[in-house]
Design goal:
five-stranded mixed sheet; three-stranded antiparallel sheet; 17 helices; 443 residues; alpha+beta
């Protein structure tokens, strides 16, 4: 199946025409007189510099994804306790939202856009887990917040791509979308600030499940803007990345009934057709884990990223006639790296054979014999900035997948030629949704 993506085609063209040698995956390009370095070399990605902050602050403010240094460290320290294993292992927060998801799927074979349902589901589960209550967006396609959130991301992505020309990007809908988002978020902020830090301490002491993440933020700061920024960052990570991965996974499963059948057999053998899986159950389903890993290999949630050199420095590779020497990076140079091109670079894989299919083929079995080397597989980034919500996301993806596959005998694809396009914006998603039908409700 083709995984068409104009961005991926651009990266192939760039390395073919602008890199120092055919084997190099580092290239230089100038846009409006500004120097850009593009790379998918693991050595260069491992040594990447600081995040962009200035260009993202209208959208993400001073949250964890748009800060550096001490400010970033403080945000990470604030978030880390809520992704400790004892909290991630508690999967009950997903169940009530999964039950509504299963009801909306129905299982009588009618055409549904499962991607649309996943975006509502992950928003509800994320707000429930982190903010203390769900926003009830699942099954509500007219959600103003969801539409505004998507439009703001689209325009932010466009502004990021055009670099020095971003002032030319029409921004009316960007500011309109931000206003809708902030109106949605304000009640959560106000609810947290209605309680003093002492009252929140007392509530945590009396609660058997501890305080919510939002309550912890409100004990840390009483600044509305800081709380708002952290909420937006968490919603971006908690809704879009997980929904995108689930969408691509079930798109592939609908195109490969043999894989769906093999996965279902493993699930029924481990937990039957009704029992909710535990965290340990999910970890003990190797084929499930391979299906998730294969999805993230082909469709990493964040397909590319940018860094800005804060001082004169070098990258390990990309210079010289063969591209194997260091390349100089002057202060204020933009370095763009592509996780997706890294994952789909044939040179990172063994030669094609019966046990090593082509890199674009969806084949969970490849993970039985292939293990990527460090910094060759980065669905959750790496190093100090590795995603602290990684285990939470994998648990949510695994739990949701098990509950769906338990209930339905098969899934058929109703999408066709032209529907395999991917939309590569801030977070990767299917460009035209995922139209499928589920059959055989197991009750």
């Amino acid at each position: 199946m083709s995984k068409k993506c104009q961005d991926l085609d651009f990266w192939h063209w760039l390395y073919k025409n602008c890199s120092p040698s055919p084997s190099s995956v580092t290239a230089e390009f100038r846009i409006g007189g500004q120097r850009f370095i593009f790379t998918a070399d693991p050595d260069n990605i491992k040594g990447k510099g600081e995040n962009f902050t200035r260009d993202w602050q209208d959208f993400l403010g001073h949250g964890i994804f748009a800060t550096d240094g001490e400010e970033w460290a403080a945000s990470r320290q604030l978030l880390r306790p809520f992704f400790a294993q004892n909290r991630v292992r508690d999967l009950e927060v997903f169940e009530k939202h999964v039950q509504l998801l299963l009801y909306l799927i129905n299982g009588q074979g009618q055409e549904i856009d499962i991607s649309e349902l996943f975006y509502g589901f992950t928003l509800d589960a994320t707000t429930d887990f982190l903010l203390g209550r769900s926003v009830g967006s699942l099954g509500n396609p007219d959600s103003q917040f969801a539409q505004a959130f998507g439009e703001v991301q689209r325009i932010q992505y466009t502004r990021q791509r055009v670099g020095p020309f971003q002032r030319l990007v029409p921004s009316k809908n960007f500011w309109k979308g931000l206003k809708v988002m902030d109106s949605f978020i304000e009640p959560f902020v106000q609810d947290a600030l209605n309680h003093s830090p002492e009252e929140l301490d007392e509530k945590e002491a009396q609660s058997t499940s501890g305080s919510t993440w939002l309550q912890s933020v409100a004990r840390f700061t009483r600044d509305r803007k800081v709380i708002r920024d952290q909420i937006v960052n968490i919603l971006l990570a908690g809704r879009d990345t997980t929904a995108g991965t689930l969408s691509f996974l079930f798109k592939e499963l609908s195109a490969h009934p043999d894989i769906y059948g093999k996965l279902r057999r493993e699930i029924l053998e481990k937990v039957g057709s009704r029992q909710a899986p535990t965290y340990d159950d999910l970890k003990n389903m190797p084929y499930l884990q391979h299906c998730i890993s294969e999805t993230l290999r082909i469709y990493p949630s964040v397909p590319f990223n940018l860094r800005l050199a804060l001082k004169d420095t070098t990258l390990p590779k990309g210079g010289g006639h063969d591209g194997l020497s260091p390349v100089g990076v002057m202060k204020d140079t933009t370095v763009v790296y592509s996780t997706r091109h890294l994952h789909l670079n044939p040179s990172m894989y063994p030669a094609v054979s019966a046990s090593s299919p082509p890199v674009l083929d969806f084949c969970p079995e490849r993970w039985e014999t292939w293990t990527p080397r460090p910094w060759q597989y980065l669905p959750f980034n790496g190093g100090p900035r590795i995603c602290i919500g990684q285990q939470f996301a994998l648990a949510e993806i695994g739990y949701t997948t098990v509950r769906i596959v338990q209930k339905f005998d098969r899934v058929e694809k109703y999408w066709g030629v032209g529907d395999d396009l991917v939309k590569s914006e801030i977070v990767m998603s299917p460009a035209n949704g995922v139209k499928v039908g589920f059959f055989g409700d197991a009750g």
